[in-house]
Structure formats: C-alpha cells, structure tokens
Amino acid sequence: MRAKVDADSCTGCELCTQTCPEIYDMKGDVAVAKDIDVPSNLEDACRQAAEECPVEAISIDG
C-alpha cells in the first residue's frame, strides 16, 4: 500500500504528520507522503490519517 497527498488540496494542518509521522512529513507548508510501500505495522495509522484529513487530501493505493 502507498499513500499520496494532493498538494493542491492540503491545508498544512499537520494532522497526518502527528498521526503517522513515519509516513507523512511536511514539505514547506504542505504535507507529503514518503515514497515507500507502507509497512504492514503502519497501515492502520496511515489509513487513520487519511480518514481524518479534514480536506480529504490523502489517498491510499493498495
């Protein structure tokens, strides 16, 4: 599974980076998802961050 953040939609609230800092990081004033396959032990936190995104800027593939 991989996560992707739509930079055009992201408001920079940092909720995802707080929920799953191993996958999400801030680049300037928007969040980015690290370009890696999400390890199985982080999948739940990664999905939680996507679900809690207030502007639905995160998509999950896989």
Provide keyphrases for this structure.
62 residues, alpha+beta, Alpha-Beta Plaits, two-stranded antiparallel sheet, 2 helices, 24% helix
Based on secondary structure, the structural category is alpha+beta
Elements, N to C (H/E) = EHEEHE
The CATH architecture would be 2-Layer Sandwich
Trace the largest sheet across and list its strands. 1-4
What can you see in these coordinates?
This protein has a single domain, classed as Alpha-Beta Plaits, CATH 3.30.70.20. The chain is 24% helix and 26% strand. It has helices at 15-19, 43-52, and strands spanning 2-5, 24-27, 30-33, 58-61. The strands form two sheets. The protein has a two-stranded antiparallel sheet with strand order 1-4. Strands 2-3 form a two-stranded antiparallel ribbon.
Task: Set down the secondary structure blueprint.
Layout: E1 2-5, H1 15-19, E2 24-27, E3 30-33, H2 43-52, E4 58-61
Short structural summary:
The chain is an alpha+beta fold and 62 residues long.
